[in-house]
Design brief:
Elements: H1 23-33, H2 37-58, E1 64-68, E2 84-89, H3 92-102, E3 108-113, E4 126-132, H4 141-151, E5 152-163, H5 169-186, H6 194-200, E6 204-212, E7 216-222
Parallel strand pairs: 1-2, 1-4, 2-3, 4-5
Antiparallel strand pairs: 5-7, 6-7
């Protein structure tokens, strides 16, 4: 299912959890979780996520790619030959696990510790910028998406696979109520309106597809 970007996304904070966590707090949570992260996510990875990662990799053409929030490099094994990837993450602990995985791959993939809110790349560097299940935990998602747009070449592309606030009104209401608990325990926002945030960051949204109801979505946009 595709749809156009919302005509009036409303105030920047609509549907967002408020001040939330700082980047340092998010880093600390993911550093703590790094050792068990792959194990904790393995059921969803087997049932759903790996299939979507393969689809994303299949949509990429040879060029220079920025992956934001690389985590333990779960996308790495799916990347096709000929791709040049610069993959960043905020958490040193997650990057340790990622480097162990990447050593076994025959890929031009460089892992860097970096915050999406302050990307250390020149303007108009990348052919594609992407992220998978990342913007639920970015403290300032609009700022991060603006940085991704800054480093994307004219004619380039943004691809996101994200979990978002459900469109169903009762479910959306429930996720709003659960968000403070999720944020406190895991540093994850379960009620992000990421499609709206992409548009607020100046991207031209071209495609939004429900992957499993409206909870998981595929988002594509142009600078």
């Amino acid at each position: 299912m595709s749809q156009a970007p919302p005509a009036d996304p409303g105030p920047e904070t609509r549907g967002e959890p408020g001040p939330g966590l700082t980047a340092a707090q998010v880093r600390q949570r993911y550093d703590r979780a790094a050792g068990l992260y792959d194990l904790m996510e393995s059921p969803l990875e087997l049932l759903l996520f790996s299939r979507w990662r393969k689809r994303l990799a299949g949509a990429l053409k040879p060029g220079l790619v920025l992956e934001v929030g690389a985590g333990t490099a779960k996308n790495g094994p799916h990347y096709p030959p000929g791709l040049r990837v610069r993959a960043i993450d905020l958490s040193p602990g997650m990057l340790v696990k990622a480097r162990q995985k990447v050593r076994k791959l025959d890929l031009d993939l460089e892992l860097l510790e970096m915050d999406v809110a302050d990307l250390g790349f020149p303007d108009k560097t990348f052919d594609v910028v992407l992220a998978t299940f990342v913007f639920c935990s970015v403290p300032d998602p609009v700022r991060g998406l603006k940085e991704m747009r800054r480093v994307c070449k004219p004619g380039g592309r943004l691809i996101l696979i994200e979990h978002l606030r459900p469109e169903n009104r009762p479910a959306g209401w429930l996720f709003d109520r659960l968000n403070p608990l999720s944020l406190a325990m895991m540093g994850v926002n379960v009620n992000r309106r990421t499609v709206d945030n992409v548009a607020r960051a100046g991207w031209k949204v071209e495609r939004v597809e429900n992957l499993m109801t409206s909870l998981f979505r595929w988002i594509e946009a142009r600078p």
